[in-house]
Design goal:
Shape of chain B: elongated
Strand content of chain A: under 5%
Number of strands of chain B: 0
Structural class of chain A: mainly alpha
Largest sheet of chain B: none
Largest sheet of chain A: none
Distance between the termini of chain B: 77 Å
Number of strands of chain A: 0
Number of helices of chain B: 11
Shape of chain A: globular
Order of helices and strands of chain B: HHHHHHHHHHH
Oligomer: heterodimer
Low-confidence stretches of chain B: 78-88
Chain lengths: 255, 232
Amino acid sequence: MNALLILTLHSWREQLRQRFFPVAVIFGGVILYMSLLLGVLAADQELRVLLDFGLASIELLASAGVAFTAATSLLQEIETKTIYLVLTRPVHRGSYLVGRYLGVLAAALSSVLVMALIHLSLLGLKGWGWETGYLLALGGIALKLVVTAAVATLLALISTSVLSALCMTGIVWMLGHFIQEIRFLIERSSQGIAGAALQLGVYVLPNLQLLNFRDRLHVPPGISPEPLGMALLYAPLYAALCLAFTYALFRRKEF
Amino acid sequence: MFRLLLAAALAATLGLNHVLGRLAALPYPPPTEMRLGAQDAVTSAALLSLGMRRLGADIGLIRLLVYYGTPERGLEEGHHEHDGHGPHDYGAGVYSELGPRALRILDLDPYWDYPVLYTAGALSFNLHRPQEALQLLREGLRYRPKDPRYLAYMAAIGFHEDGDMAKVVDELTPVVGEEAPTILKNMLAYMNVRLGRREEAVRLYREMLLSRDENYHPVARRALKALGAPAR
């Protein structure tokens, strides 16, 4: 437990310094620039556009950051043999893996928090009134990061190349938002091998649309149930499954 | 033991994926019901694949505002095709794409009333195409049934067709609140002036001065000056 905590804290500090701090700074710059532009273009709807653009940027930057970090950190440590320094000590491979994962996740969530504060400050300056839906949207982003980091870690170990791991994570991330459409395709037309492949995709791919509370903002109450409870159950379970598979591969790996 | 746990976790996740896919579907139109336009199909598809449906609708609105805010070729000067909200007002012309663009925004975010109200107002009161405006409002009502603003707009369009401006104003006044599109406030204020309802017109022009759409600030200032009313 102690080793897990130390690994998590170390990984968190390292990733925050190296990757996520610049991400938050870039976000600050982009959002300030966009606020000036959107004020002119979106006229009456400036606040809505600024709200949506800010949340989308937070998610995109944090997801890209977490996918890149999760995919590179493990592979780099294997390539540079730094991993020996840790695993030759009495550290369980599972602790190493989970510690790395939690550290990366904590760094990503810290950057989300910083970006959200910048975003909220800007919205406040523009006269936005508080909505609890904002917290829900941020929660959805956090849950997506929980899943994305686990998927990227698993794919990094399967692919053994950073680039292919990143590409595969990106594809899974996009398809995860298309589950509803894939279901629709299956119902409408797909049969045979293509249909079976799509069906498998629906079962295996993470349902990221379930965690997409950003796109549920301002949907009138009673239209569809808020899947908050299901999302809170689903994201950690899916991430745990990915990590379990990663561990199954990692414990057999020869260095 | 580990393998057993792994199999149990896998079964639980796959089962959850199966159930959730049905229970937690987003309340949006299926892909076959979505209209596509040559200008924005790629952008919309890309944003949908990133799970950014609302942002797609936002970008659609910005493009619609830019489209309607840009004079059409051949009509830059001396246009006479609308009922005259002042020579400095934009919005005259044909703008054949205005309705279809609004419908595509509605496909992306059917719970967003602003594009419907904005476009229906422009189509019916500025461009004299009430049928298109009514079609848009009917589409809006599919997702927001009994929305009082949509219903009031429909009634107002009907009265406008009959030339009963007083009834148009009576229908629209209760539903044109602070959040309403400024273009609508401008039209309503103008109709109030025509009907001799000075106080109501002044109130609306003052509200326009506070709106985020700065295109209308000079219009409101001029109108207030013409009415002999101070800006505040």
